[in-house]
Amino acid sequence: MTSIQSSDHKTHARRLRDALAAEGLTISHAKALELVARQNGARDWNTLAARPVEKNEPAIGAPFSVGENVAGTFNGNPAQGRVIGLSETIKPDLWRVTVAFNPPVDVVTSKLFSSPRKRVEMVVGADGKSRRLTGTETGVMALQRA
User: How many other C-beta atoms are found inside a 10 Å radius of the C-beta of residue 47?
Assistant: First the structure.
């Protein structure tokens, strides 16, 4: 199963914007992109644009695809989940990934208490390791395709 490439989605957004303008409704191109994303089952334009052209193949440079199962560690604890959001950052080769963990992962490094989280958003490199926007590794999360 293949999906439409983002350039086709952009064309669709332009056509939608033109059609609405012909009916007297003016929307921005950004709003048209968001509407096209929703029509294609994505929560926003960044998520749609990050979708792979072919199923289970990440967008160029992205370590994962939306909907893909991942496994690895979070603060040294075993972690597994599903990627539910993916968007590019302003830095090349860095991606903002949202993972829904199942079971929840403990995000605390202290032995005195725990704080399990079902959903975490982090910046990762192409290797699936968490990074700061400066590109340096944080050592918090390391995930790979499951």
Answer: 18
- Alpha-carbon span 95 to 88, nearest angstrom: 5
Q: What radius of gyration do the chain's Cα atoms show?
A: 18
**Closest to 78 in 3D by CA, of 99, 97, 104, 98:** 104
The strand pairing partners of 95, in sequence order, are: 88, 124
Q: Alpha-carbon distance 100 to 85, whole Å?
A: 9
Question: How many residues are there in the chain?
Answer: 146
Specify whether the CB–CB gap between 9 and 46 falls below 8 A: no
Instruction: Please state the rounded mean pLDDT for residues 105-115.
Output: 87
Dist. CA 18–CA 118, nearest whole Å: 41
- CA atoms of 72 and 57, how far apart (whole Å): 19
* CA 66/CA 85 separation, integer angstroms: 6
Specify the pLDDT at position 1: 34
Least confident segment among 2-6, 15-19, 81-85, 129-133: 2-6
